[in-house]
Write a structure and sequence with these properties.
By secondary structure, the chain is of the alpha+beta class. It is about 20% helix and about 40% strand. The chain is elongated and about 45 Å long.
């Protein structure tokens, strides 16, 4: 039996500049793009989009990461 492992990527970013305490999280699994964001400890908003391919979903993620970085978000690396 040939098991195919889905392609996936996870990113978690926070912004604490100027008194902000926000987060943005994105998961790409195959062609599914899931985003959660909001104030840390507050209400969280979730969004899901489907793309034609993993590559298209990753392109959207990379675009959002660049935008978030420009707006003082930084990535939290999970070492576990």
């Amino acid at each position: 039996m040939n098991d195919v492992v889905p392609e996936k990527k996870h990113v978690y970013m926070t912004c604490t500049k100027y008194g902000s305490n926000k987060f943005w999280q994105c998961d790409v699994l195959d062609n599914r793009y899931d985003v959660s964001y909001g104030a840390i400890g507050g209400r969280v908003t979730h969004q899901t989009k489907f793309f034609d391919s993993y590559e298209e979903a990753m392109k959207e993620m990379e675009k959002k990461i660049k935008s978030k970085t420009k707006n003082n978000y930084y990535e939290i690396i999970d070492l576990n």
